[in-house]
Amino acid sequence: MSQTVLVTGASKGIGLAVAEILLRDGAQVVAVQRSVTAGLAALQQKYTDTLRVVQGSFTDEDIIRRAVAAFGGLDSAVFNGGVNEPFGALATLPPDGWQGMFETNVFGVVRALRIVLPELRGAAAGARVVLVSSDAANHGIPTMGAYAASKAALNSINRTLAAEEQSIVSVAVHPGVVRTDMYTAFTVEAKAFAPPELLQMAEASAVEPVEPGRVIAALALRAPKELSGKYIHWNGEEVAGL
């Protein structure tokens, strides 16, 4: 029987890549995002029986309820939706900038988890939750304090989720430097404070969304129990055999 996977932020970038890979692997996918891009619309036409698109913000509880009901159940969830703006130094970024960041990257995930967890506990094949995090959580990057703190909070939620929900494998993943709109926004902003060699290094290591997408999709379908609660890199040795 096909697994049903919820994917947030599925209109482009990593989320779209994950959704397409899951569909090719025979999974049923519920895609949640604010807008339907040409790429997602093309997937809709190709996978009419196994893809359901729920348009709206994943921070909206009603949208998540609609997503859970799309196929009548849920086996796994990939929380990929998030924001990395506004940028701003600790001394200048106003509190509402922090609040907006946490509202999406942290509280949006918490709200969604409260709705999907009852469904995931009963998954016949064993449920998985994959949280798309960032290595920014482990570094002090000028003007990205709010984003980094939100991802650190997400990693903490992952550890707690693994401890509280023993039947669910929960994994936080650093997807690397990925060529997405978020990456482009960062490179533009970073020119004001980052040394050129740092930007050159980021560009040299940047990968296309499909590369971490393959790993995230594999984790959503078959992440082993021993990874539960861990924060891993998309190309780390822990995922080499997936």
Automatic annotation (TrEMBL):
The record ties this protein, via InterPro entries, to:
KR_dom, NAD(P)-bd_dom_sf, Sc_DH/Rdtase_CS, SDR_fam
The identity of this protein, by name, is NAD(P)-binding protein
Q: Which family does it belong to?
A: Belongs to the short-chain dehydrogenases/reductases (SDR) family.
Q: Which SUPFAM superfamilies match?
A: NAD(P)-binding Rossmann-fold domains
* SMART domains for the chain: PKS_KR
Keywords on record: NADP, Oxidoreductase
Q: Where is the Ketoreductase domain?
A: 3-181
Q: Which Pfam families match?
A: adh_short
